[in-house]
Amino acid sequence: MTEASGPRIAPLPPDQWSDEVMQAIALLRPPDAKHQLPRRKGGPKGLNVLGTLANHPALMHAYHAFNGHILSSSTLTPRDRELLILRVAALRDAEYEWEQHVVIASGAGIADEEIERVRAGADAPGWSEHDAAMLLAVDELVADALVSDGTWGKLAEAFDTQQLMDLVFTVGAYDLLAMAFRSFGIELDADLAPPAS
Q1: Burial class (CB in 10 A: 0-12, 13-18, 19+), 3
Q2: How far apart are CA 175 and CA 19, in angstroms?
Q3: Where are the domains of the chain?
Q4: Entry pTM
Q5: Could you read off the pLDDT of 166-178 as tens digits, one per residue?
Q6: What's the pLDDT score for residue 6?
Q7: Comparing C-alpha atoms, which of 101, 16, 87, 77 is closest to residue 52?
């Protein structure tokens, strides 16, 4: 798979972030959120992605308003959301998205062996029928932009209408981010990069 040769858009350092950028970042964690994302220790996180998006504050604001719902106000549980996002990242070979959400998935109670199993997909042994249906829905949406009738029926056994809608929009939101991260050549932040050997 072809990769960008490096950062195509230089991330702006935090001391160059405008008030509009700071307002856009705040949209990712609205105060009335149903689910709060776990915070990691050690200072600001996601500097490369936030700094890259800071080059276009209006776009950042618009996207974060939408993504703030996906991350904090969705009708999906944090576990369901993170399984969907990790599968998108695995299918799109989106390293930045994968590494960020491995951390978030761990905070949402997803075991390390489950996180690795996401790469194998819905057919890997050990998934519940519900989890397998979610992973299969991601595969179908990424491949065909359509959840098949069979998969939809399995999901509808556990999900209400709003949850089904949130599932599709979660996959779409993170498929778009995978495109952006890979096309912009966003590099891993130091806290996400594997240790030097």
Answers
A1: exposed
A2: 28
A3: 17-36+43-73, 77-183
A4: 0.89
A5: 999 999 999 999 9
A6: 79
A7: 16
Measured CA distances, 82 to 25, 100, 109 (Å): 20, 11, 10
> What is the 8-class DSSP label of residue 10?
P
- 31 contact partners, CB below 8 Å, separation of at least 6: none
pLDDT tens string 36-72 = 544 444 444 678 999 999 999 999 999 999 999 999 9
Decide: residue 197, CB within 10 A, 0-12 exposed, 13-18 middle, 19+ buried: exposed
Among 1.20.1290.10, 1.20.1250.20, 3.40.50.300, 1.10.1740.10, name the CATH number for the domain at 77-183.
1.20.1290.10
CA distances from 130 to 79, 86, 136, 168 (A): 12, 16, 10, 15
How far apart (Å, rounded) are the C-alpha atoms in residues 181 and 132? Answer: 27
C-alpha span between 14 and 54 (Å, rounded): 9
Place of tokens 């199993």: 117
